[in-house]
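Exercise: predict the fold of this chain.
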Amino acid sequence: MHSFPDVFSLTGKTALITGGGTGIGLAIAKSMYAAGATVILVGRRVTELELAVKELGPRSFYFSHDITEFDKSENLIKRITEAHGPIDCLVNNAGINLKKPAIDTSVEEFQTILSTNVLAAHVLTKAVAPQMIERKSGSILFIASMASLFGIPMVVAYSAAKSAQVGMVRTLASELSSQGIRVNAIAPGWIETAMSAKAFAGDPERLKKVLGRTPMAKLGKPEDIGWTAVYLASQAASFVTGVVIPVDGGVSIGF
């Protein structure tokens, strides 16, 4: 039996986080780093990645990569593994949104959202899973959304993509869990990030609406998502697979 607090420790583990240079991805990286993990950040923006690694410390590294370049995913995983050893935890966090009425959303726009949020996560999972199967150990996390759980206007493509992620989590968990690989998702509510601050600054009514339907009557902190990710990746969650955990101040159950 593991003892407290070791059961929550990620010491000796390596976590790969997509979109890890900013926002929720960086918060997950910080929490996992604090829990003892070696953290590998993947993203397109080298400046942000460099700053993040500098802030995190010596157990953090980055690889510049566009996750929608599907044919390069296997090579990325090979390079990371050769440099830092096997990946114990994959966090499919990278994503993009599009705010537009459904009837104005083009096929190309819809496909772009699906490519980044769904197909890229599938391709990376497919590239990482074989080494986890071989070792009979691993954790795969998806960062879902409130749009996975209920209808939000103006984001039809994003809502479809984030709902698809939940289906992927359940299917992957049913396929991989018998081989020691747990697959779960976190569905963040409204979190204080630079992106949300910008959105709310231009739309005070939206902020009022969000707080009004959040039972805790406040926005979450990025580290609220980070510590939940640590839990799901740790031995403390060794019997948890195929679930979506809302970290939302009660939004998904409130009125």
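Check your answer against the key: The beta strands are 14-18, 38-43, 60-64, 89-92, 138-143, 181-188, 244-247.
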